[in-house]
Amino acid sequence: MTQVNRIVVKVGTSTLAHSTGMLNIRRVEKLVKVLSDLKNAGKEVILVSSGSIGVGSGKLGLKERPKDIPSKQACAAIGQCELMYIYDKLFGEYNHVVSQVLLTKDIIDHDNRERNVINTLSALLSMNVIPIVNENDTVSTDEIEFGDNDTLSAIVSILVNADLLVVLTDIDGLYDSNPSENPDAKLIPRVDTITEDIKRIAGGRGSSLGTGGMITKIQAAELATGRHIPMYIINGQNPDQIYDLFDGEQVGTYFPAQKKEEYI
To answer: Known binder of ligand: residue 150?
Structure first.
């Protein structure tokens, strides 16, 4: 961890928002404080933030995430404004500048687009800016139907050649069974190989406001570690645990990077 310089942090809707969909202000403030402190320590930080549809739904007073595409797009348009306003305000209190980067998954299918994204993110980091990345849910129907920010965070990590990917979620990590159904479920502290059994354990979706679940996080780990980027899944309800990672403590579930000879 002492060699980690460039870190991608992904935060999900269930971490950012209350069950009502409205922002969990105390938690967002803690997250921004920790990430600002990492910046102050000389780390390069990229934040991949979910929440636009969930926060937009909450601001409109909807009890759950809408199911039709036009309503999802409308909620994303509303929620994205809210998210960036909050991030800009809170990071600004620690004298850090943020930027908004909205992406679609087709960037990896076109060399020119991919290069443009890499160049933009590299320029932002060189300017000491914190890029805040999200899927462009307002206009891209494919991303709303099939996309998830766990996968996006892994792709961003690869594009910027990150040293570490940290995925914040609403539980402590990957368990050997569903902890909401089995009180005896045990946390798996380390996954060296992502097997079909690991994928089976991770099956299921996330909260009513989010899009993913543990399985999308495992898929993200498979992507990231296959490109020599280690990943952690930790509980985002206490963002201070990011400090614990850098202090060398065991937190959440660790997915070590594959050795180069294993994926070349």
So the answer is: no
212 labeled binding residue = yes
Using alpha carbons, select from 128, 125, 111, 187 the residue that is nearest to residue 160: 125
Which residue, among 10, 81, 13, has the nearest Cα to 252 in the 3D structure?
10
Residue 149 marked as a ligand binder: yes
Please state, as a whole number, how many other Cβ atoms lie within 10 Å of the Cβ of residue 189: 13
217 annotated binding-site participant: yes
* Domains of the chain and CATH, by start: 6-263 (3.40.1160.10)
> Would you say 211 is a known binding-site residue?
yes
pLDDT, residue 227, reads 95
Task: Go through the chain and tell me how many residues it has.
Answer: 264
Burial grade of 193 (CB within 10 A; 0-12, 13-18, 19 or more): exposed
Asked if 101 and 107 count as a contact pair (C-beta separation under 8 A), the reply is no
- Rounded to whole angstroms, the Cα distance separating 64 from 13 reads 12
Name beta bridge partners: 11. 49, 168
Evaluate whether 17 touches 41 at the Cβ level (below 8 Å). no
pLDDT tens column, 34-87: 999 999 999 999 999 988 888 888 888 887 788 888 898 899 899 899 899 999
Pairing type for strands 231-235 and 164-169 reads: parallel
Strands (E), 124-170: 130-135, 164-169
**Which DSSP category does 257 fall into?**
P
